Request: fold
Amino acid sequence: MPLLDLTKLVVVMVRPRNPLNIGAAARAMSNFGSRHLRVVNPFRLAFREARSAVGGSAVLKNAEEFDSVADAVADCALVVGTTAIRDRKLDPPPKMLDGNSANIIHSILKQGRVALLFGSEKIGLTNDDFSYCHWLMTIRTHSQNISMNLGQAVAVCLYELAREAESAAPAEKRELPSAEQLEHIAKGLLEALHISGYVKPGTDKMFEKKARQLILKMNLEAYDAKLFLGMLRQILWKLRQSKKASG
Amino acid sequence: MPLLDLTKLVVVMVRPRNPLNIGAAARAMSNFGSRHLRVVNPFRLAFREARSAVGGSAVLKNAEEFDSVADAVADCALVVGTTAIRDRKLDPPPKMLDGNSANIIHSILKQGRVALLFGSEKIGLTNDDFSYCHWLMTIRTHSQNISMNLGQAVAVCLYELAREAESAAPAEKRELPSAEQLEHIAKGLLEALHISGYVKPGTDKMFEKKARQLILKMNLEAYDAKLFLGMLRQILWKLRQSKKASG
Reply:
C-alpha cells in the first residue's frame, strides 16, 4: 500500500513568522511526497533563515515566495484553507480533515493542482485569505485545545492526504508449529510441574489439560515453539538431575 | 463524531534531547486528549527547560521522569514502539500506523493503559528498547524521506489514534496482564535458564531480550499470566534447591 500521490499538492504558508515552522513544514512535505512549497509575505528573515538551513531539503530550497495569496494560488484548481476556528460563523462551514475531504482533494489532484493554505502561527488565516478558498478544513482536536502547532498541523494534514483509505488488514503470515510440537511442550511443562511439586497427587489429569490449554493459547509461531521447547528441555534436564540426586 | 478516548494512552519519550520536541509532543497530546507523558533518561537540561516553559501545558507540568523503559511501562497492558526503520530485519516486523493498528490499540485501551514509545531524535529506539515492546509501529512515509521530526511523528500518531475509524472491527475482550507482571515471568524464565545451564556465560543480555520477547509474543491473558508465573515459581524453587544442594 504505497502513499497516495501528492506531487501536485501545493502547500501555501501565509505570513509564517518562525523559520523552524517553515523547516518543519518542508520536512513533513518530504516525508509524504509533496514538493511545492509556496510562502506568502513571510517574515523576511525567517524565510531566508529557513531556506539556508544546513541540511535543508530540496523542498525548502525550491520554495517560492509570493506577495499575495491570489498570486500563490493562481494556477490551482482547488484552494483549501486550514483553520482551527469552529465557533466563529464561517460560510461555508469547515469540513473535517478525514477520508471524505481527502477524497475530494484527490479527485481534483487527478486533474490539476490543489493549494492547501496554512495561516501564521498567531492568528491563522484571515477572512481575506478565506475569501480565496473554495472551502475550509479543520483538524478534529480536543475542545479545550484546538489550536495546533503549525508544523504539526502540516504533518497531520499531509499524513491524512497521503494515507490510503482503509481496507481490510492483510492476513499476517506466520509459520505455525504442528500440534505434535505443541504437545511436546505441554508434556515437558507438565513433567517440570510434577518434579517441582506443583502438581499434587490425583490432579494429574486436570493439570495436563491446563498445561496444554496454556500452551495452545500462547499461539506460538514455529520458531518460538522450537526455542521454548529447547529451554524447557534444558530446565527439565536439570530438574531430573536434582530428582536423581535427592531420590 | 468526537475524538476517540486517549486518556489511558501513555506517551513515553525515551532519551529525548531537544526541549522543543518534548514541548511539541506535549502540545499534540493536549490537542488530541492524551494526558500521560513519561520521559525516560531525558537530556536533563532539555527536560527542565521544557517543563518550565511559559505557557507549558498541564501535560508537560505533570510529565513524569523514569530511569528505565521497564519502569516507565510497568503499569501498561500493551507496549508499542515507534520506528522509522524498514530495511533492518525486525522481528516481528513493524505494523503500519493505520486504522487496523489503531483498532488493536483501542481494544486494549478499553481495559488498561497502552504505552506508545518514541526514541531519541538521532537514533530512535534501540534494540534493547524494542525488547520491551509487544510490537512496533511505523508511519508510512515516502521511501526517500522516511525519518520524521519527533514532534510531528507524535502528532501524526495521536491524530490517527484519536481519529474515528471509517468502520471499526469489533474489539476482542481480553483481560491483560501488566507489563510488570510479564517482566516477572521473563525474569523467572531467565533465572531458570541460568540455573539449568541454558544460558552460557557472556550471553546474558541476548537471552534476557530473547526471553522477554518470547513472553511478550505469547500474548497471555491476565489469568494465564498468573497461572504461568505460579508454575514458573514452583519450578524455580525446585531448581534453586538443587543448586544449593550441589553448590
Q: What stands out?
A: Residues 179-246 of chain A form one domain.
